[in-house]
Design a protein that fits this description.
CATH superfamily of the largest domain: Jelly Rolls
Protein name: Protein Ves
Low-confidence stretches: 187-191
CATH architecture of the largest domain: Sandwich
Structural class: mainly beta
Helix content: under 10%
CATH class of the largest domain: Mainly Beta
Shape: globular
Order of helices and strands: EEEEEEEEEEEEEEEEEEE
Largest sheet: 6 strands, antiparallel
Radius of gyration: 16 Å
Number of domains: 2
Distance between the termini: 24 Å
Pfam families: HutD (PF05962)
InterPro entries: RmlC-like_jellyroll, RmlC_Cupin_sf, Uncharacterised_HutD/Ves
Number of strands: 19
Number of helices: 0
């Protein structure tokens, strides 16, 4: 288990230079934007515009703060992504634009290199202890509320924890978090 405190997340410019992103976790450690196997990050989107191109990457995007956005991916119908709603998955090499619905948003991005890793992203709420069990690969939990504890380690909103073994998750009151499942693709991206 590895705790990733919000205060230690790495802030860096977007690949296209039009904004900044906060890297929560990347594998392998220290990998750059063109060499990662998987990456989890947050970004502030303050105006309508194009997304950075990530050839060979599968992406999933969720809205953490703000009303939401309309994701326009070439060759697909526009998809509305709302705060704590259903995330949108799309190929990172497809030309993509975002149109904000009601002002700036902060989004959560999960990216995996096609053929090496695959992922699933979901929002969850709990009000009783539960066990998080990585089926294979790893789980990354991003706390949306304070009061969550993993194996007794208290998390603040914005903190994350990377798990490779089962761990007990507890909460004071209702706890909200995003859960990212990551696994080696081994040729099976339909998981």
């Amino acid at each position: 288990m590895k705790i990733l405190c919000a205060a230690d997340h790495k802030v860096m410019p977007w690949k296209n230079g039009a904004g900044s992103t906060t890297e929560i976790a990347v594998s392998p450690a220290g990998a750059g934007l063109d060499t990662f196997d998987w990456r989890v990050s947050m970004a502030s989107v303050v105006e309508d515009g194009a997304f950075s191109a990530f050839p060979g990457i599968e992406r999933t995007l969720a809205v953490l703060e703000g009303e939401g956005l309309v994701l326009e991916v070439e060759g697909r119908a526009p998809q509305t992504v709302l705060k704590d709603g259903v995330p949108a998955s799309f190929p990172g090499d497809a030309p993509t634009r975002a149109r904000l619905l009601g002002g700036p948003v902060v989004d959560l991005n999960v990216m995996t290199r096609r053929g090496r890793y695959a992922h699933r992203l979901r929002w969850q709420r709990i009000d009783a202890p539960t066990t998080l069990t990585p089926a294979e690969g790893a789980l990354l939990l991003l706390a949306r509320t304070s009061g969550l504890a993993v194996e007794g380690a208290r998390l603040k909103a914005g903190d994350a924890v990377l798990l490779r073994e089962p761990a007990r998750l507890e909460t004071q009151g209702t706890g909200e978090f995003y859960l990212v499942e990551l696994w080696e693709a081994a040729g099976d991206l339909d998981k």
